[in-house]
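Thread: quick sanity check before group meeting

JM: Hey all, I'm pulling together slides for Thursday and realized we never actually wrote out the predicted structure for the chain we discussed last week. Dropping the sequence here so it's in one place. If anyone has concerns about the input, flag it before I start.
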Amino acid sequence: MATLSDINSKITSLLGVDTNTYTNANRLIDINLWYQKVVSMILDSQDESDWSDSNNTSTYPRDTFALTTNRDYAIGATYNFLKIKDFSVTYDGVNYYRATPIDSTEFSFGDGPASATTHQATIDSNFAKTSPRYDYKYGAIFLYPRATSDDVTAGAAGLVEFFPGPTEFTSSDLTTGTASPGIDSTFHMMLAYGPAWEYAQSKAMPQASSIYRELQVYEERLRKQYSSKQLDRKYALRSAYQNYK
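JM (edit): ok, ran it. Output follows.
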């Protein structure tokens, strides 16, 4: 497992420049940029095993929130939210039902503003609480049907599971040097090679091409590793019969 101190030292060795030339402030920016890039590669490659920053040991990327009589529920910045995995709803505070995604353009009727309460009630009449739907747009979840005041009293709630971004490092993390990236340790050094390549390329340094080639090798290995984490899944082939009557 590589620490930030190890990563910073590797950047220096790859480039042959110290922190007076390639400052810690600029290294931190590039390390965090590459942390974001690596996580995007992971999310693009992963199988049914879902990645989450291992530094977030206090919670999983899922949250339950109380429903109101509103249609929409804005997703706060504290979630560090990138993608929705799953959304479930309970209207009675007991039974949860998985909500199915829908786009409001699929409606055969007009959506209408929230102030048009009668029309919004008409919209809700097209949906059942045992099979709710939701539209994710504008950084918010729009729920169909809405919860009623009785539902709210009963403990109506939503449960969202999501894919988060990484927890970025701070300048104090870099100074202390003991923190590690929350990804597989196999790929920690991508956060050294990435910033080193950014710097080498910007300065037209001769080692830029070799650093880039090593990054490509890392990425290929990362995509293979994260796309085959769940090896316990059993697959079977079976015949498909056609009825031509």
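AS: nice. Strands lie at 62-66, 72-74, 81-90, 96-98, 100-101, 133-137, 140-144, 157-164. The chain has a mean pLDDT of 92.
JM: adding both to the slides.
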